[in-house]
Amino acid sequence: STASARAISTTAPSMSNAAASATPFSPPKPGTVSGFVGAVGNTPLIRINSLSEKTGAEIYGKAEFMQPGGSVKDRAALWVVKDAEEKGLISPGGTVVEGTAGNTGIGLAHVCRSKGYKCVIYMPNTQSQEKIDLLRMLGAEVYPVPAVAFDNPQNYNHQARRHAESLENAVWTNQFDNTANRQAHIDSTGPEIWAQTNGGQFDGFIAATGTGGTLAGTTRFLKEKSEGRIQCWLADPPGSVLHQYIQQQKLERTGTGSITEGIGQGRLTENLKPEVQDGLIDDSLHVPDADSIRTVYEMLHEEGLYIGASSALNVFAAGEMGKKLGKGKKIVTIICDGAYRYQNRLFSRKWLQEKGLLEAVPKHLEKYIVL
Ligand code: PMP
């Protein structure tokens, strides 16, 4: 239930600051939480009216842009830190180290500040200055390192692991293969969606994947609770190997990239593997960047929702899933974060032109291209 998700996020045993675990009012009042970690989770489920009308299905988006750190990754960040605490891998004053180019690092930096840990982030040096600045403003120590492949020992993930190994009382949270990540969604995202749909009164769930935590954890919960009734699909951007894997069990890189940041994957991570291997992911859809970009602008214009490109991909895919499952079917997806972290790209004429995506923006929505 949502109550248990809230209980998990407010009663972490090893808070460095006793006040941080205090209940603000007793008995707890709805909507009143303790500290940053108490505010993680319990996001609204928004009916996307325009897309529901257009597709004849009912489309809902879980508003993860309303998380206290701004994205769906606040859940994973909190869960991997709690897991390290529970396993005794880290204690007050310790250091959390992660390799991440974006939202996980931001979530971790928030969680670490609120719990009194140091936070060290390794990222590829191709990332925007805004992200580096934000992480530093949140108190993280940031190391931009050359963007080299995973099999190179200088890859940011390996550097993060070695940094943690070199310190006392430090943990590499390893978001890709640490299954505390998907557990966040088994414990919180899944149960919240279940409660928000009157006990699973919906037909399909669809989401794109980066580490796999959101899709796999939510799918695991929904499949078990609905005894397999709810369809769970993957949505995949260009350049990711997962769509082809779900369709043909082949893991082959296609070469093209995508403008959608934070999603797409070249392998089956430990977070995703169990659900894929157990056949819980029923189907998948490939979503071209033009559809994701158009949806960014449509959601803004028609719904007043300012969402990032991975969220737009999810929303578009939910509409397509709705059309495939049929009239009146209810589909749930994830609105992973807001457009704020990407606005210098998504709303820039020059950038859209460079990416060959200017034509993807409908003529009547070009007025939103203000940069
Ligand atoms: N969208 C955005 C913007 C993200 O940062 C991420 C995390 N990489 C995702 C989607 C995918 O989430 P997950 O890692 O749980 O698969």
From TrEMBL:
Main location: mitochondrion
Reaction equation(s) it catalyzes: O-succinyl-L-serine + hydrogen sulfide = L-cysteine + succinate; O-acetyl-L-serine + hydrogen sulfide = L-cysteine + acetate
Subcellular localization, as worded in the UniProt entry: Mitochondrion
Cofactor(s) this protein requires: pyridoxal 5'-phosphate
Keyword annotations of the record: Amino-acid biosynthesis, Cysteine biosynthesis, Mitochondrion, Pyridoxal phosphate, Transferase, Transit peptide
PROSITE patterns tied to this protein: CYS_SYNTHASE (PS00901)
Enzyme class at the top of the EC tree: transferase
Gene3D superfamilies: 3.40.50.1100
One annotated GO molecular function: cysteine synthase activity
GO cellular component: mitochondrion
Pathway participation: Amino-acid biosynthesis; L-cysteine biosynthesis; L-cysteine from L-serine: step 2/2
Residues annotated as domain Tryptophan synthase beta chain-like PALP: 39-337
SUPFAM superfamilies: Tryptophan synthase beta subunit-like PLP-dependent enzymes
EC number: 2.5.1.47
Gene Ontology biological-process entries: cysteine biosynthetic process from serine
Protein family according to the UniProt entry: Belongs to the cysteine synthase/cystathionine beta-synthase family.
Task of the protein: Catalyzes the conversion of O-succinyl-L-serine into cysteine, the last step in the cysteine biosynthesis pathway. Can also use O-acetyl-L-serine.
PANTHER family: CYSTATHIONINE BETA-SYNTHASE
NCBIfam families for this protein: PRK10717.1 (NF007989)
Name of protein: Cysteine synthase 1
Organism per entry: Pseudomicrostroma glucosiphilum
